[in-house]
Specification:
about 15% strand; 4 strands; 4 helices; Beta-Lactamase; four-stranded antiparallel beta sheet; globular
Length: about 150
């Protein structure tokens, strides 16, 4: 019989909320994800969504010939990263374990490709990408998220 995990003293992902990202800034962040997707020899066709801390859409861009199913997925990934204040990759990794099985029941996007946007230690939004395989979506979204300090 296994023992339960030890409870940490500090709350993980306890990121305070900040002012929401502006539309102009969200567009610049999305441009970084697009540039990452277009780096040679890449030709990733992605949908990019930027949301505010509540998960409401602030900016959206769909590259030409992106699969249509990725439109909603990018938005849901970004919304998940904002509302749970963590990269969706963390959720995806947890799902690979028996303890993570509960994640599929709550309607969150449990796939790689979204990161919270944290500025001065506060959550200002999140970015999500969809259209490639999870690792490709992750690379593009992380390149954009890394611009926020």
């Amino acid at each position: 019989m296994s023992t339960p995990p030890v409870a940490p003293d500090l709350m993980p992902y306890d990121i305070p909320y900040g002012p929401p990202i502006t539309a102009d800034r969200a567009a610049k962040i999305a441009e970084a994800a697009i540039a990452e997707a277009k780096k040679a020899p890449r030709n990733w066709k992605l949908a990019i969504a930027v949301v505010d801390p509540n998960g409401d859409l602030v900016y959206f861009y769909k590259m030409d010939d992106t699969q249509l199913g990725s439109i909603e997925i990018a938005i849901e990934k970004a919304r998940t990263a904002a509302r749970l204040r963590r990269p969706t990759e963390d959720l995806w990794k947890a799902l690979q374990t028996q303890a993570g099985a509960y994640l599929t029941t709550f309607g969150f996007a449990i796939a790689m490709g979204a990161f919270p946007l944290i500025e001065n230690g506060k959550l200002i939004g999140a970015i999500g990408a969809s259209g490639g395989i999870g690792a490709q979506d992750n690379v593009a979204a992380k390149a954009a998220a890394d611009l926020i300090k």
